[in-house]
Design goal:
Elements: H1 5-20, H2 26-30, E1 36-41, E2 50-54, E3 59-63, E4 75-79, E5 86-90, E6 99-103, E7 108-112, E8 124-128, E9 136-141, E10 150-154, E11 159-163, E12 175-179
Antiparallel strand pairs: 1-4, 1-12, 2-3, 4-5, 6-7, 8-9, 9-12, 10-11
Length: about 190
């Protein structure tokens, strides 16, 4: 494994901070600007689980694993305003739209080309869901148009949309946040 000095120091700092901070803060540490994360849907139906941006056609779905084949499962967190608002940029290998975009008017999710208007659905609020596990969150779309707002992984068919709440039957609105692995399921180059 080859890490550049800056990447090594960043990884060391994040790892050290995780040891010193209470576990309740760990998810928020991961969902802060500059971090690269994976989001795993915790829906109760069997199926694909990892949020996957498909930059070649500006769609979003669920992938079965975190492998190089599914490069769109890596997301970089960006600051999107006060109170911890974030935007998520897909880091997939293929050129195309990259910003996770909730489309509240029709409860769909896709990838926007940028974070400027009219793409107000690229701003997300982190909603803690589990006091015992701070890495379990919901992501609430803050788009300007009224409609469904919660990122919802539909593990039965591998699709992603927006749900009206995080309550049952919307179990796909629960997401586990983790740091994106340096090497995943395959040997490091």
């Amino acid at each position: 494994m080859h890490l550049h000095r800056r990447e090594f120091l960043q990884a060391l700092a994040v790892g050290s901070a995780a040891l010193l901070l209470p576990s309740r803060l760990h998810a928020q540490l991961l969902l802060t600007p500059g971090h690269e994360v994976a989001l795993k849907c915790l829906g109760n139906v069997p199926g694909n689980r990892f949020l996957d941006g498909r930059t070649q056609n500006a769609t979003v779905g669920l992938a079965p694993s975190l492998t190089k084949r599914f490069s769109g499962t890596k997301w970089r967190v960006f600051n999107a305003g006060p109170n911890g608002r974030i935007s998520l940029q897909c880091r997939g290998n293929v050129q195309g739209n990259r910003w996770l975009d909730g489309r509240t008017q029709n409860a769909t999710v896709g990838l926007a080309p940028n974070r400027n208007k009219p793409f107000t659905g690229v701003v997300w609020e982190i909603v803690p869901l589990d006091d015992n596990n701070p890495n379990i969150v919901a992501l609430k779309c803050l788009g300007d148009i009224e409609g469904n707002r919660f990122l919802d992984g539909r593990t039965g068919d591998g699709s992603v949309g927006l749900a009206k709440s995080t309550d049952p039957p919307f179990t796909g609105t629960r997401w586990q946040v983790s740091a994106y692995p340096v090497c995943i399921d395959e040997p490091c180059p």
